[in-house]
């Protein structure tokens, strides 16, 4: 059984019941959170149980939660586009992620997907994440530390096309402007039969990636895009999809390493 | 590092390079697999490495893989509709599944989603899965045994509305004709703040579920449907979505337990 | 051949080449149009040919067009939600609209769909459009007058459920909060075999409408929603769908009148 | 008022109430129609009113209709892919089609879209349709004759890139493997400001078309794809989208002619 009561030092998610808006922050003695509906005192949260109410200075009702992994992903300090939860979820399943796996990721970006991978491989797994930019790595490190997962992640500075320093990994994920440059290194580092997954924003990058995958010795198992359609459910007005939606975030590829 | 060579007794996935068609079966000494392109001898597979080629009796090239969890899900013996990987992936992320969790699922159905949950909670986690039909449970048990995950799964016969025999679980998932009947039992069994997820096929069931969730003391965090659009990538003809697509599989709800 | 040169008194569409933003206005001697990129003098447009350039006071390039029917629809003075072109187009085809037809529409709303219907039935057709609100009718009249189509449209004040004053029409279209109230009147006014089309925003309204259609003596031929996905095509960055999209505007029904 | 009673020589649509399946045929004295539910005698239909019932030899109930334009489009004798009604509808609106217009279409294909254009321009309009293949033109001619619209259509044999024999047309539509070849001829034949619309199946063809449009002197107003999602509405089981859907038919472009 988990320890129910929230303590100082923990990361907390505050959720506005009415507007469905949420805030993520670290709970500090004497701290204050400014919201669109007045201030919330950290001391009013400490010692409470998840799911309970905290009132803001204007009397607005907020709910207290510990963040889920998707909350942490969405709330990272962003220096880049992130892999959205809807795509991340599909990728995780396609790459057959499970506890204990060793996984290469490149580029690290803001570390949102790294957080999910690190959560899923558990304390015995390891994520090796690479980026060509020192500043992205530093930012991602801070994000992953905030998520409490830094002991499962190894960071490295690397350019696309350079060999990965680790071998016999169970999966590789590429999120790069020119992912095809890293496909041969990915093949070299993967256990036979295991998955390489890629996200790309355009049809041209998709085509080039698939061509290089086939030429390098991968079986291209699936190419998709994922659309998440949010549904509005209201007692009086009834059920219908929301008027606005995110129309596109990227094409997703999943391939498996072949041997001659 | 995994043991690369495939042995008798293992479950194997055979993939037709040209047609992208795959077959799942247990490797047996002297065994034979009939395909749309002739026979494949099990003895030609034993001892090979994942990703290598096996030829059928007609000379067709197949690739040898160990199945991924999504392959196992799609290839269960079906006595019911299954939760499709695209939906399962979203649910897993929304429920914040991680190693070591204890999860309630109802109904078990054919056990496809059970397999995914069991893989992700790892050897220290546990899935408590309930169904009102003995025959579904028996079939699901066989599917989960084939997936090698039976030691992480506890099965139980239960009608919707009856209390769940386990308490303080980290997540609950409902896939029932009348999921609202199981919402109060789910609240009773969940750790505060943790997730209840539901899949339903129609707008009416969606509405009723959301209403009962709110009345019972849940925060409804998200309601979506997930569309997976497969993309055709061909060297000569170019990139475009496939002409056929699965248009709908269900509405997905994710809520978190509140306390007074 | 049409008269190419644009004259004072005509409605003109000005299109910003760079931002793809457009403005609709009536050309007046001495007039000025304020844009996000400076002023445009009406006198710089008069006498020009469609497709030619006009420069704003800041030197920005705009293109001169006569508005298409979809421009007129999108630019009506709105007092209500309008039927969007993507839905309007589907409805027109489903209702088998053609020159010379006599059509009932209820409610008129802002008159956007009325404009399209009036254009397509031509000078020999007639649109009978009804609304329960005088102010909507007045606003719609002004919009349709601006579109130059007022001689093809007859306006009437009517509550849902009241009989339509015209009979033997070739099609009926309903855009109402409670369209089922007008289904019997629609049956009474339609030529046998002809189409009744309905747009509704929620699943509940859809269900009730379909049930009343069947009970009244209609064959429900098709129920759909239309998603328009805008695609970004850029020389350097390549092809991909836009990140934002309109996720939902309504469910569309098309039925045909049966006789006993 | 239309002539209600159906006569020999007319094209009739028979609709299976239960299966929603339909048949299109010309009514002949003594004729018989074989269906999945037994025979229907043409003589049982002649003299009836649209919307009335005819029984098959097995007692199954069918409804009698005159076909709508979308029925005619879907039921053409196909020698090629056709432009589907959902796309055709969008194109018609984007091209600002109205009674009296003169329109160029290339290629003719099976003539499905030609039928719609011919219906909408009315008896005073004209469709000039070109194809490089004599056999396609012959087949399309037969389809358009069956639709009763042959007097509004002029057919011509033409290769992509050759100048169109007519000038000052109000719209041009291209449905070709290499539409860019016909963009300069389209510019030459169009009235300034008027629309050129194109349908293409792949991202690569889309990109090339857009590039040539811009280079030739067109304003690219919109690039979209249209998804039609069919909704299942059942009294008992409730409302949800169909499980199967057509995932893709083509990218649609609409541009307007510019002058220097």
Protein architecture, described:
The structure is a homotetramer. By secondary structure, chain A is an alpha/beta fold. Helix content of chain A is about 25%, strand content about 35%. The first copy, chain A, contains 6 helices and 15 strands. Chain A has an 8-stranded mixed β-sheet with strand order 9-8-7-10-11-15-12-13, sandwiched between helices. A 4-stranded antiparallel β-sheet of chain A has the order 2-1-6-5, with no helix packed on it. A two-stranded antiparallel ribbon of chain A has the order 3-4. Chain A is globular and about 65 Å long. The termini of chain A are far apart. Chains in contact: A-B, A-C, A-D, B-C, B-D, C-D. At the C-D interface, strand 6, helix 2, helix 3, strand 11 and helix 6 of C face strand 6, helix 2, helix 3, strand 11 and helix 6 of D. Strand 12 (about 220-235) of chain C pairs antiparallel with strand 12 (about 220-235) of chain D.
């Amino acid at each position: 059984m988990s320890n129910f009561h929230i303590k100082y030092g923990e990361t907390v998610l505050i959720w506005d019941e009415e507007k469905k808006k949420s805030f993520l922050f670290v709970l500090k003695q004497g701290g204050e959170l400014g919201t669109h509906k007045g201030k919330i005192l950290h001391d009013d949260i400490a010692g409470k149980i998840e799911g309970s109410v905290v009132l803001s200075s204007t009397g607005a009702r907020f709910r207290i939660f510990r963040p889920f992994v998707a909350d942490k992903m969405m709330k990272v300090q962003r220096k880049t586009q992130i892999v959205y939860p809807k795509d991340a979820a599909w990728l995780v399943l396609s790459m057959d992620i499970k506890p204990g796996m060793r996984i290469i990721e490149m580029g690290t970006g803001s570390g949102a997907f790294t957080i999910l991978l690190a959560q899923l491989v558990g304390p015995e797994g390891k994520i090796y994440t690479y980026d060509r930019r020192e500043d992205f790595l530093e930012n991602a490190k801070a994000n992953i530390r905030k998520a409490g997962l830094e002991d499962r992640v190894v960071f490295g500075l690397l350019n696309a096309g350079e060999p990965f320093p680790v071998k016999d990994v169970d999966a590789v994920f590429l999120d790069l402007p020119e992912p095809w440059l890293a496909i041969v290194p990915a093949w070299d580092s993967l256990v036979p039969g295991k998955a390489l997954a890629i996200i790309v924003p355009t049809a041209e990058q998709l085509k080039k990636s698939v061509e290089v995958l086939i030429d390098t010795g991968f079986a291209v198992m699936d190419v998709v895009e994922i659309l998440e359609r949010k549904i509005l459910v209201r007692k009086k007005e009834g059920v219908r999809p929301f008027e606005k939606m995110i129309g596109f975030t990227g094409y997703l590829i999943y391939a498996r390493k072949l041997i001659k």
